[in-house]
Design a protein that fits this description.
It contains 20 helices and 15 strands. By secondary structure, it is of the alpha/beta class. Strand 3 and strand 4 form a beta hairpin.
Length: 414
């Protein structure tokens, strides 16, 4: 674990409150991130002093205060160049009738009672007070609820997505009782505002540990995106696909390691329409026209989850082009980009070059057409491109993220 270095502004507030005979600590995410060697975005302070006592003390010190959330015991101290710090009185939370914030709070002088109301042990640490062994869970890479996980999730169901987000971002595992409570309480997410789900989902998708999260908690994903449910366990019955539709989606999302959220969401939704158009013959299963179904479903999902107009259109364009050969041709023709890497069906190359004689296309074969070739990663694709070769072979999973301009492809490999 890394050493915690408290900013001067926060340290001055803590020492001042202690001089006034109050307890005061930095607490929560800033402690967690500092121990992990990450730069905290915010430094939160908790104290036994009431909001009025905090304000009176800071006013005597000529520090401006902001009534950030007096109802819940929080004020903000504006230390000017030393920064702004939220200061919250130790509290016990009442009922959560809106599944978001407590209806009432009771101030307490006990740091233990304050920490016991928090979501996970890794967020229930004060410097230096760790009654729920959050440091041990940080060292062992474990997400564990404080106390009874069913109670924590019934208070605020968004904590379910927060657990998955922390597991994805930090590459942690979720403790078994907490994991079971996530499955048991996933339905509660239907009571959570779309904007809150949108925020957590995007952070989850961008985590390096997203694959096990998606594979282990399909029920949670299907709760926030009900249209995903038919994809779970759907056997594609095709020799070119080793995964079910949902597992294929999960691997596609994980294989893209860049930070463009539009690409991540497009990969999450690109095959969501496949169950709608499944047919079967002597050659196995087929999904003719699934791109159109996926496009229409994706549009509904993006609107419901309150994605902004720009991101929504980027996702829809990517999802459309990923799922449609004609879309690839239209995209390349209409785009201002001059270079592309394409992994798609044979025969498309001639039409692409005919319609776009002044543009460059790098074609990467897939295991559909070169099953005996050694399959390589997207990083290898970009390396080969940089060295001047014009034909490379990549895995079928890479195929999904290759229908983009070369500059974005290179960004993906960084």
């Amino acid at each position: 674990m890394h050493k915690i270095s408290i900013p001067k502004g926060a340290k001055a507030i803590i020492l001042g409150l202690r001089y006034e005979n109050h307890e005061a600590y930095i607490v929560g995410g800033c402690v967690r991130d500092s121990l992990l060697g990450k730069e905290p975005k915010d430094w939160d302070i908790c104290t036994s002093a009431t909001p009025q006592e905090v304000k009176e003390y800071l006013n005597r010190c000529s520090v401006r205060t902001i009534d950030t959330g007096l109802k819940h015991g929080t004020i903000t101290a504006d230390m000017e160049r030393a920064g702004k710090y939220e200061i919250t009185t130790f509290r016990i939370d009442g009922d959560y009738s809106d599944n978001r914030r407590p209806d009432s709070v009771t101030f307490t002088e006990s740091i233990y009672q304050d920490l016991s109301r928090r979501d996970f042990t890794i967020n229930a640490m004060a410097y230096n007070d760790d009654p729920f062994h959050g440091v041990d869970d940080l060292k062992n890479g474990i997400i564990r609820c404080v106390g009874n996980p069913n109670d924590r999730f019934s208070e605020d169901a968004l904590r379910i997505l927060r657990a998955l987000r922390f597991a994805s971002v930090y590459g942690f595992s979720i403790e078994k009782n907490t994991a079971q409570a996530i499955h048991d309480n996933a339905w509660r997410l239907t009571n959570i505002a779309a904007e809150r789900i949108h925020s957590e989902l995007c952070k989850l998708l961008l985590g390096n540990g997203v694959l096990p999260v998606l594979l282990d908690y399909p029920d949670v994903i299907a709760t926030i995106i009900p249209e995903m449910k038919p994809c779970i366990g759907f056997d594609q019955n095709n020799k070119y696909h080793q995964y079910t539709i949902y597992d294929h989606i999960a691997h596609a999302v994980a294989n893209y390691t860049g930070k463009d959220i539009a690409v991540k969401v497009a990969l999450l939704l690109h095959d969501i329409g496949k169950p709608c158009c499944y047919t079967e013959d002597e050659n196995g299963g087929h999904f003719h026209g699934h791109g159109n179904y996926s496009y229409d479903i994706s549009k509904v999902v993006l609107e419901r989850l309150r994605f902004d107009t720009t991101t929504k259109q980027e996702v829809l364009d990517l999802a459309d082009y990923i799922g449609s050969t004609s879309g690839i041709i239209n995209y390349a023709t209409e785009s201002d980009n001059e270079e592309f890497i394409i992994c798609t069906e044979s025969g498309v190359g001639y039409e692409l070059r005919t319609k776009n004689p002044n543009k460059k296309f790098y074609f990467a074969g897939t295991k559909h057409f070169c099953p005996n070739m050694k399959l390589n990663t997207v990083e290898k694709v970009c390396h080969v491109l940089k060295t001047g070769e014009n034909e490379v072979h990549v895995s079928d999973e890479t195929r999904l993220k290759s229908l983009v301009p070369l500059d974005k492809m290179l960004e993906m490999a960084k």
